[in-house]
Amino acid sequence: MTHYPVTPRNRAKRVHERARYDHDTVHAVLDAGLMCHIAYVIDGQPYCTPTIHWRDGTRLYWHGSSASRMLRAQKGGVPVCVTVTHLDGLVMARSAFNHSANYRSAMCFGLAEIIEDAAEKTRALEALTDRFYPGRRAELRPMTAQEVKATSVIGMTITEASAKVRAHGVGDDAEDGHLPVWAGVIPVATMIGAAQPSALMPETPLAPHLQRFAEGRRLDEVMLETQAIYDAEGRA
Amino acid sequence: MTHYPVTPRNRAKRVHERARYDHDTVHAVLDAGLMCHIAYVIDGQPYCTPTIHWRDGTRLYWHGSSASRMLRAQKGGVPVCVTVTHLDGLVMARSAFNHSANYRSAMCFGLAEIIEDAAEKTRALEALTDRFYPGRRAELRPMTAQEVKATSVIGMTITEASAKVRAHGVGDDAEDGHLPVWAGVIPVATMIGAAQPSALMPETPLAPHLQRFAEGRRLDEVMLETQAIYDAEGRA
């Protein structure tokens, strides 16, 4: 198993037993989500921006961020922390103190840089569509040069990362076990609903490649499927 | 309507038309979620930590963060940015460029401080249970002094905030409208699953106050209900 290096920056400070540093665990958390939160600093002030991310190997990408102006001004990259979190359950214990949550999270550190080269930027934007919606780009018109120009794409090689996973039942104190209080886990998951076709659309059927986004499926499972296809097929 | 002040820190830099600064919109995004992401800075390095948050008026609270040591060392508070995001849908357009996501997000700025006073800390921890699970604290044993001591609670008065909401259909370019590509919105939502009772539990029925966490309900709707009860009843 390949691991990210453990440094003072990514070493878990709390609940060490939940921490993992191997690529497989970290990437599975990243890949299961569409959205990340990115922390960055401007003049000492931290910002936390939500955005859509995509991964190619140990590189993360995102686009159009309010940090773009700052990034453009600083060659060589600026330090950021990219975090993806999935809430999986509410853990209800017999004491307030032992209430908890089941979750998966990954924190990734690196230097974020604007991708200025048009060819590299085009490839990164194509990867975005290919990674989320494999097969879709074949039915779309090509991006125009103006569209590529109008989008900021930011890339970051992950230098350190850690994942934390809590995925078990209630951790009651032994002496609380007899208390007549309901205890257990209330699971939660991000689920896909019924597709809502555009009102302006002619009678266009849902393309086969979109049928995996079926009502009632878990979004994280679909996202892992599409990443696996992207990893296997690579970029067009 | 009461608004948060708009400053260079929280003024929307992009897609201005999606930005809102009023308390109602910002608080509705915060309250609909259990989890936030907190950006903070240690020695110039940004960190983005996921955690559970709760709100009382214009104060946000969270507990047990790896920033605790830093916070304890710095009286007067440290600048943080607390962001809550809900992914509501995948927006599939006829061009790669116009693909988007429906979402609700709120970014809140302020100075975070460790709550050292034991009475204030106890009240904040009681508020956590009351806000998430109204009615539950009455059936739990009181927290012990040791439990209160073992928990770091961090408080922050929101000084600036903004919310962004995208909640509409596809924004195709007019000239792409004829393309025979499926376009529309694939909605997603965080849903509650079937409660999993603790294996160690005697035949304890689900308390009436937990029945709102019913299988098949949207978590964000339940969270807004429980916050409304907390807002109406205040702290015990």
UniProtKB/TrEMBL annotation, chains A, B:
Domain of life: Bacteria
SUPFAM superfamilies: FMN-binding split barrel
Pfam families associated with the record: Pyridox_ox_2
Protein name as it appears in the record: Pyridoxamine 5'-phosphate oxidase family protein
Natural source organism: Gemmobacter denitrificans
